[in-house]
Write a structure and sequence with these properties.
- Its cofactor is [2Fe-2S] cluster.
- Belongs to the adrenodoxin/putidaredoxin family.
- Pfam families: Fer2.
- A hairpin with a 5-residue loop joins β1 and β2.
- The chain starts with a strand and ends in a 6-residue tail after the last strand.
- The protein is of the alpha+beta class.
- The strands form two sheets. Strands 2-1-5 form a three-stranded mixed beta sheet, with helices on one face. Strands 3-4 form a two-stranded antiparallel sheet.
- The protein contains three helices and five strands, in the order ββαβααββ.
- The chain has one domain: Beta-grasp domain (Ubiquitin-like (UB roll), Roll), CATH 3.10.20.30.
- Bound molecules: FE2/S2 (inorganic) cluster.
- FE2/S2 (inorganic) cluster binds next to loops.
- FE2/S2 (inorganic) cluster (FES) binds next to loops.
Length: about 100
């Protein structure tokens, strides 16, 4: 699925991310700056936060408690924040655009 990551400065990276990978893995493997993912995807660091537009949020499974808790630690959390390591790429997400925060923490 094609995923577009938009950096805080507006720079876009469109990447074909294989199904089954997470949005975090798609960014990290392709050197998209802005996602640190210190814990490697264990939902334990909250440095892989992204903003997901409303229309796409509806196509992504909801947050588990753990993700919710971790997001509370992020300084830049907004209502549409998600942890990118908790979102698996599916064919339905083809064309998704997500925004990256100015900084993680
Ligand atoms: Fe650590 Fe997502 S990579 S919480």
């Amino acid at each position: 699925a094609k995923v577009t990551y938009v950096e805080h400065n507006g720079k876009e990276h469109t990447i074909d991310v294989a199904e089954g990978l997470t949005l975090m893995e798609g960014a990290v493997k392709n050197m998209v700056p802005g996602i640190d993912a210190d814990c490697g995807g264990a939902c334990a660091c909250a440095t892989c936060m992204i903003y997901v537009p409303e229309e796409w949020l509806a196509k992504i499974p909801g947050k588990e408690d753990m993700e919710e808790t971790m997001l509370d630690f992020c300084e830049h959390t907004q209502a549409n924040s998600r942890l990118s390591c908790q979102i698996k790429v599916t064919p339905e997400l083809d064309g998704i655009r997500v925004s990256l925060p100015e900084s993680q923490h």
